[in-house]
């Protein structure tokens, strides 16, 4: 089982407003491959917070009705586990965010992974490469200097 970061869905599903660079197109293609793995039964886990990130971005960019199909798919897939997040989870994540210079929600994913023995994360955020005890997938081209690749 792998943790599934919100940016995978965003890179896979959102339509860019401009031509993508070679590196950005690589990320988009990899995101679509990951979604296909999930569609074909690959087991993943995520949190309600990470789903909310996707829904909020899709709603703000495409309208309130657009995330319904995505959310219905998530809720009906047996191979996608979605875990609720509590204040206690944020209390555990907060010091990790400060110590590792990552966002609180990324620290939340990291804390969740450590607590549950999830060793790999699908994400395009390179700072996960610097966190001990986990591995970020997929490998990104070395030519990309950004911590995050945006589309």
A few lines on this structure:
The chain has one domain (2-13, 20-137): 5'-nuclease (Rossmann fold, 3-Layer(aba) Sandwich). Helices cover 52% and strands 11% of the residues. It has six helices and five strands; from the N terminus they run E-H-H-E-H-H-E-H-H-E-E.
Percentage of residues in DSSP E strands: 5-15%
Quick one: CATH superfamily? 5'-nuclease
Strand order of the largest sheet: 3-2-1-4-5
Query: What is the number of strand segments?
Result: 5
Instruction: Encode the helix/strand succession as letters.
Output: EHHEHHEHHEE
Under the CATH scheme, which class?
A: Alpha Beta
What share of the residues lie within helices? 40-55%
Your description of this structure?
The protein has a single domain, classed as 5'-nuclease (Rossmann fold). The protein is 52% helix and 11% strand. It has six helices and five strands. A five-stranded parallel β-sheet has the order 3-2-1-4-5. It is globular. The two termini are 27 Å apart.
Notable characteristics:
five-stranded parallel β-sheet; Rossmann fold; 6 helices; 151 residues; alpha/beta
